[in-house]
Amino acid sequence: MTSTSRLIPTGSQTVGPYFHIGLDALAQCAHQDMAGETVRIHGRVLDGNGSAVPDAMLEFWCSTPANDDAGRHCEFPIGFRRVATEVDGSFSVEMTKARAVPLDDGRMQAPHFLVLIFMRGLLRHLITRVYFAGEAGNVADPVLETIPIERRVTLIAQQKSDTAQTFEWNVVLQGAEETVFFAW
Amino acid sequence: MSEQGTVRIAPQGTQPEFHYPPYVSSIARSPRMPLALLAETMTERTGPVFGHRLIRPQDHDLTAQHEGDPLGERIYVHGRVLDEDGRPVCGALVEVWQANAAGRYRHKVDNHNAPLDPNFSGAGRILTDEKGYYIFKTIKPGAYPWGNHYNAWRPAHIHFSIFGAGILSRLVTQMYFPGDPLQPLDPIFNSIPDKAARNRLVSRLDMERSEPGTALAFKWDIVLRGHGDTPFEESSR
Fold first, then answer.
1. Is the overall model pTM greater than 0.90, yes or no?
2. Which of A19, A127, B161, B187 would be a feasible disulfide site paired with B22, CB 3.0-4.6 Å?
3. CB B7 within 8 A of CB A183
């Protein structure tokens, strides 16, 4: 299908330091989940000086199966979470682990969440993905394989040895360890 | 990834750069390595859908959330949420937050020496109707000083957060008011290079929708990325 864009999308502006006023209510709504294994992802958001970012907001999204009509009619969307960082730059989110989803050509993507990152200082949000260490599908994941091998690790949450379902993943905004972010 | 399309890049100049030194906070918080192209897969084509029961009846009337009336100039802010084809996006979640009439946010890190208003929280939310329409009743926010540079003042604005059809349509932005002389001095407003794109963040006075003797109205339409012809469903495009 050819698509002629007639309107230019509205410009982005920073979420600023006071987003809790407007955006906490939704984050505190009762969550619903699809069936499956629950994972906890925790980590920190760090700026270019290595300092903690205490005023970031992260949104996690994974596509629920297209035929999961039950999911589409829930009040709080399945596969979505919003979480803010604490004063030490840390965040923690618990949700049903994303499942493998196909590409248009049938190749499979390893389980992953799309992550949107907002904060004072970011005039437009960042987009990244988080995968899970130990997934066999990571090796052949069609998105991961487009990333230079030395930077792929920034997209993979590492398993903590003590708890199988707990993963650690840090977001580094700038510098040698900078997380891979995607253009939009 | 030969057959897999990638996420489109916004038309040049219509979105801010990540690294924009006049906005000092962007310096340490902006990525410097090249951004990667992202395949547009089912993950990117789908997005969260929010149910009506998440919204309470008073959520879109910021003047009626407390026992008394808030101080300040009562206004309506309304408009439509559209996709790039100009079609309405229905069921879009619109969340807003703002300072009170004195330019003070109800937030622990706002230490501006201006009074809080016990009758104003400054937060609202609504889902757009089948025509993509939203409306808020609120108080015109005041300008306020901030620490970006000497004698820096933010022009009056309302923060908007919107979810359209698909996660890539996600938008967080700020709506401004017409004729505000602080806009050309504001690095956040000026971070959008294209002048026309920048000025589309400014609402217009709408006397037709105003309520004589009660409230002026400001109209502001929002355009989200994407073509929402099959809203909230996976598209085969």
1. yes
2. B187
3. yes
